[in-house]
Amino acid sequence: MKWVLTAAGFFIAMIAIFIGVVWFLFTREGPDTSHLTKLHSAQALELQDTGSAYNVVYEYSYGGETFYGSTSIQSRNMSVGSTFGICVDPDDPAQHAQTKTDCGPDGPRNPQEGLKEKPEL
């Protein structure tokens, strides 16, 4: 009888942990990207194939200024010169994030700071 109570307690604890993890995943908020409203494009300058993704050094120009950055992109269709979407803050174009959809509250997730000099891979 004691093992039944132990098993039931374990089962209830597992359900509570599962519900807690699901609740955490659906209620957490990411960084604020509401200021990244202008859809723009960046161009790949250098690529490093990691087997499952590419480490990419890229550049984009906005408002007469050129910015650089680096990211990892999981795509098999990347080459030097390829372009991909980014969202830019029109008031501070150094603030940007890669996007696969569009800009706005459901768009980019990882804001970055554009650099004035090209980074190394």
From TrEMBL:
<feature type="transmembrane region" description="Helical">
    <location>
        <begin position="6"/>
        <end position="26"/>
    </location>
</feature>
<feature type="region of interest" description="Disordered">
    <location>
        <begin position="89"/>
        <end position="121"/>
    </location>
</feature>
<protein>
    <recommendedName>
        <fullName>DUF3592 domain-containing protein</fullName>
    </recommendedName>
</protein>
<keyword id="KW-1133">Transmembrane helix</keyword>
<keyword id="KW-0472">Membrane</keyword>
<keyword id="KW-0812">Transmembrane</keyword>
